[in-house]
């Protein structure tokens, strides 16, 4: 009687472990899917892939411009902010080009190097942009990314999704998938050992 209870408890534990392993594998596959439709397209679409050194030439703050997602679009959430323009000398080609914060900055407003987040306090936005401008004036040289194919003549300060971020995004689902596979393998080994012991 006790033996039957132990066998039943063992089978229940193995079933739960198998469900856990399969659940971990399923969650990792869903995570892979979301990474594939969100982060990977932005990474592959970016043409600014080569890092170089840029020398700051001019830093200007122009009059306020409306923030919008694209030129000519009417956005109800648009707000005015000082337009920071940073011009740099691209070491790789020697050209004078405009520097943008990220790829997203160029899409949101191609006239400004930096697009602040939406804020109702215009003084804070102005102080933030002035601080960024003073930092650019302070550091004359800085690392930047440019398009080696020449499709984009401008440069960006940092990529939204560099290779390290992409690898880090895939790390956790990979560990989860590996853990799920390991649990299933261990359960199968345990079942095989149990059958072998019973046969002997």
From TrEMBL:
Keywords recorded for this protein, A-Z: Glycoprotein, Ion channel, Ion transport, Membrane, Transmembrane, Transmembrane helix, Transport
Subcellular location: Membrane
Assigned GO CC terms: voltage-gated potassium channel complex
Transmembrane segments: 20-43, 166-187
Superkingdom per UniProt: Eukaryota
GO molecular-function term, one example from the UniProt record: potassium channel regulator activity
Gene Ontology biological process terms in this record: detection of calcium ion
Claim: Transmembrane helix is one of the keywords in the record: yes
Coarse class of the protein's main subcellular location: membrane
Membrane-protein topology: Multi-pass membrane protein
Pfam family name, one: CaKB
PROSITE patterns: PROKAR_LIPOPROTEIN (PS51257)
Family: Belongs to the KCNMB (TC 8.A.14.1) family. KCNMB1 subfamily.
Protein name: KCMB1 protein
Species, as recorded: Oreotrochilus melanogaster
Lineage: Eukaryota, Metazoa, Chordata, Craniata, Vertebrata
The gene coding this protein: Kcnmb1
